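The records we work with from here on pair a chain with its fold. Taken together, the tokens spell out the fold as the letters spell out the chain. The record below shows the convention in full.
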Amino acid sequence: MTETDTPALEIEGLAYAYPDGRQALFGVDLTLRRGERVALLGPNGAGKTTLVLHLNGILRAGAGAVRIGGLPVTEEHLAEVRRRVGIVFQDPDDQLFMPTVREDVAFGPATAGMRGVELEARVTRALEQVGLADLADRPPHHLSFGQRRRVAVATVLAMEPEVLVLDEPSSNLDPASRRELADVLRSLDITVLMVTHDLPYALELCPRSVVLSAGVIAADGGTQELMCDPELMRSHRLELPFGFDPGSVTVPVH
């Protein structure tokens, strides 16, 4: 198998129980090809966050395996795994803590040892990817919430990850900010796993969706197809906005 044939993300038989004994995942299997954009859907308590925290080794599998670009998520590979998997958390202020946007975006590569012209070019490229190069010298707390979320994406892109994981990327965004972020995500040549309750956003951005429910994958298929299945949606507490018809939307093909 060549590198381009190797899946970006492979999860096999992943099971996990928290120390209090609560079982969160019951043998999850999931494969993402390179360049796919996939939505991870499911009700609260389904195990979505637990799954995501296994992707860069914050949590370790009680059973099963996780591989990123063929590399197992194990202690010896953690540094490389965390470079390959970038997670953008729901609150951008969890990821922005430096005096300027430029310093926030530079933090990861600089911590990894990058310096000088190479570091500056990496920062500029990441900010250009999110459309905020002109705000490099601004303090993050002076930016709008939508801009801060895009800076948080840039801090992850600066590490040049192979997989970008987004936790509720559209939450608390106004319509213009939602569109700006969607434009950014569509432009990236990267594997994206998007955890969201925002079903129209998933339909707009992700050709494929996976429904995680009660710690198992309940459905995996085309996003539009899944959302047009009222019984599936109802049984897993997935609610479309009132009056929204997923069948009427022109969806992405890749």
User: Anything to note?
Assistant: DSSP finds nine helices and ten strands in the chain. The first helix runs from residue 48 to 54. The first strand starts at residue 9 and ends at 17.
